[in-house]
């Protein structure tokens, strides 16, 4: 038999399969003539082909149903995420508001503490006759203090401070 180049192996395999079908029919029915055996083999092969095509159509339909079900599940899952995403957004907004409130409170506490403490430090640092905003003298510069310590010594005469720093 003639065939296209490269199809020789396929044609040989088909001929061997047809020969096998004829051999099975001969074994079951007996010798009934080559023409009748060829027709019965053709009918048997066509029956197999139709069964395979029906199975193929069944599997194709099943694949289509599964793909539709997958698409519907994906759409349903997208819808399920929306409430969760909205809830996460609300929680994030609430946390941002709390951070803003706490930050503002901390800044206000820092300003209040600075306003309370700044005048005390200014009075403790400024020697008599010098304005509070004047620069202190450099370390080791100026007359010695009455208690014998350097005038540049920033330690106040607070006993609690002295006990904390003694060591």
TrEMBL record:
Domain of life: Bacteria
Residue span of region Disordered: 120-167
Keywords attached to this entry: Cell cycle, Cell division, Coiled coil
GO terms of biological process kind: cell division
Biased composition (Low complexity): 136-167
Pfam families recorded: ZapA
Ranges in coiled-coil conformation: 49-76
Protein name: Cell division protein ZapA
Originating species: Acuticoccus mangrovi
């Amino acid at each position: 038999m003639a065939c296209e180049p490269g199809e020789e192996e396929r044609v040989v395999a088909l001929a061997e399969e047809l020969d096998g079908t004829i051999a099975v029919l001969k074994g079951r029915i007996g010798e009934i003539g080559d023409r009748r055996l060829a027709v019965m083999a053709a009918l048997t092969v066509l029956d197999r082909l139709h069964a395979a095509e029906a199975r193929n159509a069944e599997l194709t339909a099943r694949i289509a149903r599964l793909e539709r079900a997958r698409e519907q599940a994906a759409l349903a899952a997208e819808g399920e995420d929306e409430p969760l995403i909205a809830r996460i957004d609300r929680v994030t907004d609430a946390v941002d508001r709390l951070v803003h409130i706490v930050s503002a409170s901390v800044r206000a506490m820092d300003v209040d503490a600075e306003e309370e403490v700044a005048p005390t430090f200014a009075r403790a640092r400024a020697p008599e006759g010098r304005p509070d905003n004047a620069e202190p003298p450099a370390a080791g510069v100026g007359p010695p203090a009455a208690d014998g310590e350097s005038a540049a010594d920033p330690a106040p005469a607070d006993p609690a401070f002295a006990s904390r720093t003694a060591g």
